[in-house]
User: Fold this.
Amino acid sequence: MASSTSAPPTLQVRDLTIRYRTPTGTITALDSISLAIPKGGALGLVGESGSGKSTVGLALMGLLPSEAQVAGGQLLLDGSDLLALDPEARRRMRGPKLALVFQDPFTALNPSLRVGAQIGEGLVHHRGISVSAGLDAARRLLAEVGISDPAAVADAYPHQLSGGMRQRALIASALACEPELLILDEPTTALDVTIEAQILDLLEGLRAKRGLSLLFISHNLGVVRRVCDRIAVIYAARVVEQGPTAAVFARPAHPYTKGLLAAIPRLSERRGRLAAIPGRLPDLAAPPPGCIFAARCPFAEPACIAERMPMREDGERAARCRRLDAVGAAPWPVAAPAPHAARAEAGAPIVSARGLAKTFHLRRGLAALRWQGGRIVHRPVFVRALDGVDLDVAPGEVLGLVGESGCGKTTLGRTLLRLVEPSAGTIRIDGRDVTGLDARAMLPVRRMAQIVFQNPDSSLNPRKTVRELIGRPLVRFGLAAPGDVAARVAALLDLVQLPASYAERYAHQMSGGEKQRVGIARAIATEPKFLVCDEPVSALDVSVQASIVNLLADLRDRLAVAYVFISHDISVVAHLADRIAVMYRGRIVETGPTAAVLAPPYHPYTAALLSAVPDVDAPKRDRIRLKGEIAAPTGSQGCVFESRCPRRIGDVCATAMPPTRAPAPGHAIACHLETEELGH
Amino acid sequence: MAAASPEQASRALRPARAGRKLPLQLVVGASIVCVILALALLAPLIAPHPWDTINVRARFLAPNATYWLGTDDYGRDVLSRLLVGARLSIFMGVTATAISLAVGIPIGLAAGFFKGRIDEILMRGADVLLSVPPILLGLLVLAVTPPALWKTAVAVGFVYIPPMARLTRSVTLALAEEDFIQAARARGESTAYILFREILPNAWPPLIVEGSLRVSYAILLAAALSFLGLGAQPPSSDWGLMISEARSFIDNAPWIALAPGFAMCLLVIGVNLVGDGLRETLDPRLRHRVAGKG
Assistant:
């Protein structure tokens, strides 16, 4: 074993090959993967969806589905091969030796068991301790993962906990039997950035304290950079690059790594275009004979396609590319922006909202009656999703709307289009008050204002072809004669960079990025002046996300459409937006030109959001951590952010509405702190 | 993306075009149903004996070369009666199911889409109907007026409206949350368009399976009502009525009851297989699941 470290590695994966049998043929999910994690080390396994990264975790745990077949290789944990063990012996390893934390904290806990019982279960099972001793251990573990009231949480059912708490509980349950290796499969993907930052802090702390080895599986390079000291980039079932995290991020060797890193939007550099990786994963049932990335690689030459390339090792680092020396430090190519249309900066706003409010009644009327203290009382339950929002979007302008899940940003986007009826306030579109219009009068407005959705699987009717999907708005608004629809659909497909042959496809025959393009084509088919983009890239891989962001930027420049661009990811918003509005619990707490919002003075919440974004380029910096999680907005007298604010002044925050501070024209911060104090 | 290879494109499209593989159960089920349907339609031509001619000298004959399925208590040929009776059974099943679909689907769509008060009213109404056993409900409809064939069909259809409405509602509830409904609303589409062009096409697969099951239930319920004397009237021939009449002689002449019983069984199995097969063929996601992987 030519290991460069002296201590034997905790985990060593050697030439692991796993195939899936499918009705159409055999798919190679992992092709001779070799990884090593030293004792106490943390390895990040990075790749896009479909690359096979989750299969590694499942193979280690022995939880592969029945159609998977290990075709070769070894999984050495402390020197003994897991694959040589019988199922019963492997079952006994799960927990005491290695443990897995699943991606989705919302489904990974059993909803009908108390959290404490679920955490203690492993101990009761593996160590044979009593149930009550297991519960005691569960409370200790919950305290260790940073839960302030472990007894109450141990007694709770999963649905009573927030996403971050559940993820902590899952980690506690994985730690219960003191495993040597903790496998984390996208542990923060389902969480908000501020909660993600909390969980990452926790993992760093646990790793130092317990000497845990981590296998961290993720698509998010920023997260991996923070947690891991080594990184392995996996693409289409093969590891294409491996090495120390800092070195790989500083000088990526493999073109795919270069592309991945270049595709990430950064807060520091905005405008222009993101680097996109064109194309899609190769067909894993019949992988190309040569380099698997050659078809998408801008540096590829004919020889790359012909012959397979082994890993080339260079000290600590290794990469699978035959042009390593020739490519060297050459950067990933970035497309030039499309020619600008004349931007109508001046003029009346295309969309203008005043005092917009929306209250969702979860329980009202007869259903809200309760028996309490010997008499019937009325206890309605409602959520104030929007609480007095003012908003203006100029023609051709991109307004970025940022906030954590549950802050009301999606409701705001839908209310602007009257897909959700506002409870109070007015909406003007192109100067016209649309709040009271009936369906018929609304129609011209509908043509002018369209929407792009987050989830491309849900936004396209699975029973309709792309031609029907894109053609319908044309027919609906009489924008094309029946004979011209096909030609117009083809033109729209071209505009979103899809081949005309896609007109005959159904949604399930396309990749996520392609579906999102169709969704955008449908929205721009009516030639709208205003588009609500509701998290249009958050369901997509980084490389695909970049190409969709570029497309939206191109369309803005070519068609002069104004966007309200909603996202939880402030770096994506910063890349595209002219102005940014930061939302928290139904109110806009800060708004201003992008550059002004991203620089001090900040609203304390904006500062926390910015500091929670995992940075690809700088792993460590001063961080502001928010305690707790966003609560359901139910309306409060004072500042909405008061309960979590690290810079809370005192009772005034809870009792009085914060005044609006205006450090610069067009920049507004709602906070009790003076502008000068907000600056630092 | 932009650079999807033509090879990939053609592979993804192929199943939609040529050589679609039909599920086996669809082929088998459709064959059974078609054969029964053909026999029923051709019954007057192929029946070996007149179905209603009484022959006192040929009573209770066991199956033999002349009477393939034997004769009944009036000496009538069981096979001929079976063939003629198939028409009534199939008519009952199909008509009743059509009625329950035609009424139940709009109710379910409205309840699932509008929710709130409309949903409450429609579904509580359905609950009331569901709380009465089907056979009693059918009896109730028929008891107030003299029995007639079409009334039996309507009664059976009426009984199956609530389950159809409930199923449609539950499918609609889920579909109404999808973003493509919001996209349709953003285009200002009418409620009717959203219900029948956006939601209904996606609701068909479970409805078709349920509908095919209902055809078989309806045949059985219609037979049960006939058995109780509230459906087809003697001397007309209906499978349920045949079993009912044969009940008294089940010890001595089991074939009189067994033949229609077995025929009903075969028809119900055939219809169910068709329903199952249709579900697989109609759902584009199921149809292409194999091609979409990888």
In short: The two ends of chain A are 53 Å apart (CA to CA). The first helix of chain A runs from residue 53 to 61.
